[in-house]
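[job 4471] stage=fold_predict status=RUNNING
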Amino acid sequence: MKKTICLILCLIMITAALSVMASAEADEISIWNGLDVDSEWGSDYDSASTFYIEDADDFIKFRNMVMDEYSFSGKTITLNTDIDLDNYNLRYGVGGFTTTTNTSSNSGNWYHSLSMFYGVFDGNGHVIKNITMNQNEDDAVLDTATYGDCKMVGLFYARAATIQNLGIENVTVTLANSGTARTDFAGGLCSVNYLSGITNCFVKNITFSGGSAITNRMRLGVISGYHRAATMKNCYVNGADFTGITVGKGQGALQVGGIAYAEEAGTKVENCYIANVVKDGPNFEKYNGAILNNNDKDATLTNVYSEEHYAGSSGSTALLDIEDVTLAETLGAGFRDMSARKQYPLLAWEELPPAFECESMKVYKNYGTSNEVELSDGVVSGGELTAVISGFKNNTGDALENAVVNFSCISGGKLVNTKSVFVTVGENSAADGDIEVTLDLTDVEFAEGDFLQIVTYKGADEVIPLLKVKRIEK
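[job 4471] inference complete, writing structure tokens
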């Protein structure tokens, strides 16, 4: 019976496989190589009002231009691809308050920096990942001697700006360890968000560490380190680790708001949550859940959820229990309900994560022998082929005893062979060990357009999208 179900479902998936392959190229991520960019991007700055970032090099050129005092005031930047910065160091973000921008011409005030972003940055539903911002190391491309020490750490340094529809994930922030070059404000998305708006954004998996033992003040928030006279709506943080911070203990030494350090009566934070925060030690006596307000300059909080409660004079956070994931209705139309998977809400623009995913999937010929060869895309091969799937993870929210991993060959638009294994996976967890599926294709005559596919599903009534497709062409 199980074999019959697998055959039927595999036939159903043949058409889906072709469409997934067609869309895969459009969804490819642009990876930065850490080198200085030789790009014409932004060369029409004086005449253009709209700019499009098509790859990682464009983003770095944009960052460099803001650091060189191009404010982009009155201009819109639209991100058209996901970007992987591959953890090359950004000592400076999109703008910053440095020892070179802190000159007599700007009165020495942080909000008069010559390098601030004033425009509209529309992430367009894309994600920037693998971001490293280490204040103790040189920038990957900008010269420290030219730009100086940066006292504000974050991907953006914004004034009278808008940042919207953007996600950042896998972020590492290392604070300056020198008293003379100390970090004053630090955030993941924004070091400073002044007179600006942040809407429909998220930060996932961010780690803070470092700091000066003699710092006399440092304000920190995951989305905005200093959120003043500003607005934030429909945003979330999932995964923040503060345990590596070594800022000296003392009055005012470290003031941490999980989502933001927010102050000023006109400041608003609405429909936001923070989950999965890790913190410890005496340095966190100033941590107050989702938001930390300066006592005499409260922000207004509406529908803000945190794992720790904080009450301000202009609003308070609601407690977020790890078992309470039914927040989407309360947070509003800006969020996607994920309670069926026992997960916190996503933003409405985010794609639904796959029910099953894996860290890697490789196909071998003669697997486990001295003649073992890994097949790459585009390789034509018969014989016994073995798919090895590592880090297979169940995101469905249900413990499964019969999740199916199906390895098939489609030739001439027809299913020529298929093999399945049944996998037991816990609720929102990974399978134990690698999954191996061997397919005998000894008698198959390959033609152009043939392909191998691996599909997963929970049962006859619920087909899960493709985990992997591997082309084999003449």
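[job 4471] summary: The mean pLDDT is 80.
[job 4471] exit 0
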